[in-house]
Amino acid sequence: MIEQLHVTNFKAFASAKIALAPYTLLSGLNSTGKSTVLQAIALLRQSQEALTEHDGGLLLNGDLVELGTGQDVLHENYVSEHAEPTISISVRTDSDSYSWSARYEREADLLKLISSADLGNLSSIFGTGFQYLRADRITPAVTYPRSHDIAIRRGFLGARGEHTINYLRHFQDEPVKDRRLQHPHARSRRLLDQAEAWMQDICPGVNLQADAVESTDLVRLSFRFGTAGLSSSNRYRPTNVGFGLTYVLPVIVACLTARPGGLILLENPEAHLHPRGQTAMAALTCAATAAGAQVIVETHSDHVLNGARLSVKRGLIHSNDILLHFFRRGDNGATEIVSPDVGPDGMVSEWPEGFFDEWDRQLDQLLD
Ligand SMILES: Nc1ncnc2c1ncn2[C@@H]1O[C@H](COP(=O)(O)OP(=O)(O)O)[C@@H](O)[C@H]1O
Ligand SMILES: [Mg+2]
């Protein structure tokens, strides 16, 4: 498990140390560096091979993140001990510390490692069960890609969740073994039934189907609607049902396939969901942590925060296993991170201004 991420001269940060727990929630104002944290981890993953090659380094553009060139990622007000600035990402796990420092090159999209850098063992950080779902995910479509290599062999859902439908099609009969991930109202432990049950928290009566489109390299997702286990309606294409259903499916599958040693990075699991659905996603992401994965969630949702607090109160995750980080701009314009504690009762130790206080602020004005 990653216990601390330290980035230097990387995008939003001149230097930042971010403590990470089994469940970490990143919140705060827009453009304060929350996604930058996830991108730094995704960049290491994306560069996993390149970092071990001769003349290798940080691969800025790939399947997970497209960061541009050196000048895009070098923090504007970089700090440098040497004439040439370096961009560094360091990771401390429960057993080791690793650090990668790359030389800045304005136009390069492969930032070469400084030869003295400690070549850490990335496979111990990214074992099996890595998922990274960006805020810009798959939208409803008639078909989705079918890649045996990515979805089946590597088990990766895609940074936009674009391989989720193929994954679900192939692994639909695999059981969800950890009981904490199992939905109490699911028909069985099968992945498809479990995904359907969690989807039903968002849209009661929804049924899912994922199948191949014959003679093509494509797969298709369809929805039916019914009650009491009866699928009574026609099959609908994703384009003809609510946007949120397709949008949340990768989040649900990523969590249901959580495993010990896994790492799940999620941007805005709440996107396009109604409030109760957002709370359900908090419970599911916490269940993924309970099942042994490390989960880092970027969110703007009070319901995700409160859902996570409830998971602590209910004992699904321990209060020592959750960290809240609130990103805000300090007086000098740089990001500062405030980290309120969560107690065993789910209570939060402090509520800095701007930290999920909008509801109260509005209520005060309404009651004024
Ligand atoms: N090279 C850079 N130098 C300084 N700041 C940067 C650089 N690249 C991005 N940023 C800052 O990072 C912000 C985006 O950070 P991001 O992590 O995406 O924010 P969010 O908190 O909304 O997820 C930009 O608005 C900008 O302020
Ligand atoms: Mg963001």
The coarse silhouette is globular
Structural class: alpha/beta
Which runs of at least 5 residues are low in confidence (pLDDT < 50)? none
Number of domains: 2
Proportion of β residues? 15-25%
Helix content: 25-40%
- What pattern of helices and strands is seen along the backbone? EEEHEHEEEHEEHHHEEHEHEHEEH
Give me the number of helical elements. Answer: 10
Averaged pLDDT: 94
Tell me the strand order in the biggest sheet.
8-12-13-3-14-15
**Count of beta strands:** 15
Bound molecules: adenosine-5'-diphosphate, magnesium ion
- Rg, Cα atoms, Å: 21 Å
- Terminal residue distance: 48 Å
Largest sheet composition? 6 strands, mixed
Protein name: DUF3696 domain-containing protein
InterPro entries: ATPase_AAA_core, Bact_Antivir_Def_Nuclease, DUF3696, P-loop_NTPase, P-loop_UCP034888
Organism: Actinophytocola glycyrrhizae
Domain DUF3696: 317-366
Task: Summarize this entry quickly.
It is built from ten helices and 15 strands.
3D structure, described in words:
By secondary structure, the protein is an alpha/beta fold. It folds into 2 domains: 1-126 and 299-368; 137-262, no CATH class. The protein has helices spanning 34-46, 70-73, 122-125, 148-153, 164-171, 191-202, 243-256, 275-290, 302-313, 358-367, and strands spanning 2-10, 13-19, 23-28, 57-59, 86-93, 97-103, 110-112, 130-133, 144-145, 206-213, 218-225, 263-267, 294-298, 322-329, 335-338. Strands 8-12-13-3-14-15 form a 6-stranded mixed sheet, sandwiched between helices. A 4-stranded antiparallel sheet has the order 2-1-5-6, covered by helices on one side. Strands 9-11-10 form a 3-stranded antiparallel sheet, with helices on one face. Helix 7 (243-256) packs parallel to helix 8 (275-290). The longest helix is centred in the last third of the chain and has 16 residues, at 275-290. It is globular and about 70 Å long. The termini are far apart.
